[in-house]
From TrEMBL:
Residues 87-114 form a coiled coil. Keywords: Coiled coil, DNA-binding. It comes from Luteibacter sahnii. InterPro entries: DNA-bd_dom_put_sf, MerR-type_HTH_dom, MerR_fam. CDD domains: HTH_HMRTR. Residues 6-75 form the HTH merR-type domain. The keyword DNA-binding applies. This is Heavy metal-responsive transcriptional regulator. The keyword Coiled coil applies. It comes from the Bacteria. Signal peptide: none annotated.
């Protein structure tokens, strides 16, 4: 007979570094399987739930959406082609991050030019920042 460590929702939240409401949300979204219930109705989790929550949290930290995380979880169970699919998803996420960084760099460069051009005093009509934003006088 195998004994499973029985953890409360508070314990797995603490162990995984997430909020209790987050665990409930992941259950509703199908990212975390429904837990066993004690006769009292309280949720009862095992260590696998903690591992899954940590996986989800780390994937979110890397910028994956919940739908992408759902796909990664499904692929992680595929013993034959799953790794290729995981790599493809990670490569796509990396490309999206690189594109976002390039866009943010363009925005930063443009804003930096405006800040440099603005004297920081005088009439708002002469402010290059307000001009670039399309200064609208009420």
């Amino acid at each position: 007979m195998t004994t499973h460590a029985s953890l409360t929702i508070g314990r797995i939240a603490q162990s995984a570094g997430v909020a209790i409401d987050t665990i409930r949300f992941y259950e509703r979204e199908g990212l975390l399987p429904p837990p066993r219930r004690r006769p009292s109705g309280y949720r009862e989790y095992d260590q696998a739930a903690v591992s899954r929550l940590r996986f989800i949290r780390r994937a979110k930290d890397l910028g994956f959406t919940l739908e992408e995380i759902r796909e990664l979880l499904a692929l992680s169970a595929d013993r034959h082609g799953g790794v290729e699919g995981v790599k493809d998803r990670a490569a796509a996420r990396l490309k999206a991050i690189d594109e976002r960084i390039a866009e943010l760099q363009r925005v930063r460069d443009g804003l930096s030019e405006l800040v440099e051009a603005c004297p920081g005093h005088g009439s708002p009509d002469d402010c290059p920042i307000l001009k670039a934003l399309g200064n609208v006088n009420p």
